[in-house]
Write a structure and sequence with these properties.
single chain; about 350 residues; alpha+beta; 6-stranded antiparallel barrel; about 20% helix; elongated
Length: about 350
């Protein structure tokens, strides 16, 4: 039966099924002029432009913590004092060495001065004169070493007072008084005394999909809104676009950093924000709803209604927002186009003769 039915269709004995016609007209829309301002929605996080972990340069026991989390401090203000008892004892020892070295220098200097006079009068042998001169130089070197040791102790004493590197705010203090800390010999070592940040200049960090990164440029404005703040939006400006793509949340893209100036109560470090980036504007251009533009044979087309006939026409599109698209060429204002693509029937095969 299937073979017979197929042969009947192929030979044309049974007419080819035609689309069911309905009286309902397809929806249409008229091309009109309007402004199109597409935007790129992003999400990001607020971070301070300057943030450091404060670490001691020398080890020891914390004697006093002068600040608490959330406190604003000025540059050079004391943050933490480390116990300096051992260093003070070491400095006293260095002072004693300096006093002894100076006495030796003065004593040998007196002997050397007299020897110099006797040597000039040829009353002293050259060997004795050279030995006294060497003793004097050795005594001076010992004095210089004692002075250098005291300077080293003084430098270490100065480091027992940890001060603020700039004007800013204390974010966190994870240590307690009496705790023994380790000095930082490099960036990645040492005990973290506290986190410090300058909140007068905030960054907006975002990750942009690689397909959208080309739409952004340094200096471009960003509208920033925090979900937990009021309805007020803040303006930020893009200052950095990473030259190298990275993967974040399984999406390859580029890091984008914007700067928002001023201390904002609702814009604190760690706050998540929504970002809108305007990426262009076209004023008074011919436009259509996005749903009225189709792709056919790798070309962008619209179906223009001409009376009862439909014309498939190639168009060139421009900017596009969430609902409308700019038509640069191929369509004029006032023309009516279909909102759905017409169904094209398949013509029946003719009987072979």
């Amino acid at each position: 039966l299937l073979l017979v039915a197929g042969l009947a269709y192929w030979m044309g004995w049974v007419p080819w099924p035609q689309p069911v016609k309905t009286d309902k007209a397809p929806p249409t829309v008229v091309a009109k002029r309007m402004d199109i301002a597409p935007v790129l929605p992003l999400s990001g996080e607020v971070a301070p432009a300057f943030q450091v972990d404060v670490k001691p340069e020398i080890g020891g026991k914390i004697k006093k913590i002068h600040v608490i989390a959330g406190q604003n401090v000025r540059k050079g203000e004391s943050l933490v004092t480390i116990d300096d008892t051992d260093l003070l004892n070491e400095r006293a020892s260095a002072e004693a060495e300096i006093s002894g070295a100076r006495l030796r220098v003065e004593k040998i200097l007196g002997n050397f001065s007299r020897a110099k006079q006797l040597f000039a009068q040829k009353l002293l042998s050259r060997e004795e004169y050279v030995n006294l001169e060497a003793d004097y130089q050795i005594a001076e070197n010992e004095l210089a070493k004692s002075l250098f040791r005291r300077q080293t102790v003084d430098d270490r004493l100065a480091k027992t007072r940890v001060v603020s590197p700039a004007d800013g705010t204390i974010l966190d203090v994870p240590v307690n008084e009496g705790q023994v800390v380790v000095g930082a010999a490099s960036v990645n070592s040492g005990t973290n005394l506290m986190s410090f940040a300058d909140l007068s200049r905030l960054l907006i960090n975002a990750h942009v999909n690689q397909l959208d990164a080309g739409k952004l440029s340094v200096g471009q404005l960003m509208e920033v809104h925090s979900p937990d703040s009021s309805d007020q939006d803040y303006q930020a400006r893009i200052e950095f676009i990473a030259p190298l793509a990275t993967v974040k949340n399984n999406i390859k893209g580029f890091e984008v950093r914007g700067v928002i100036e001023g201390n904002r109560e609702s814009m604190r470090p760690g706050v998540s924000v929504s970002i809108i980036v305007p990426i262009g504007k076209a004023e008074g251009v011919v436009s259509l709803p996005v749903t009225a533009v189709f792709e056919r044979d790798r070309k962008t087309v619209v179906y223009v209604l001409k009376g009862k006939e439909t014309e498939c026409r190639d168009v060139v599109v421009g900017l596009m927002d969430s609902s409308h698209v700019e038509i640069k060429s191929g369509l004029t204002e006032g023309e009516e186009v279909l909102m759905v693509a017409p169904q094209e029937s398949v013509p029946p095969k003719k009987k072979k003769t």
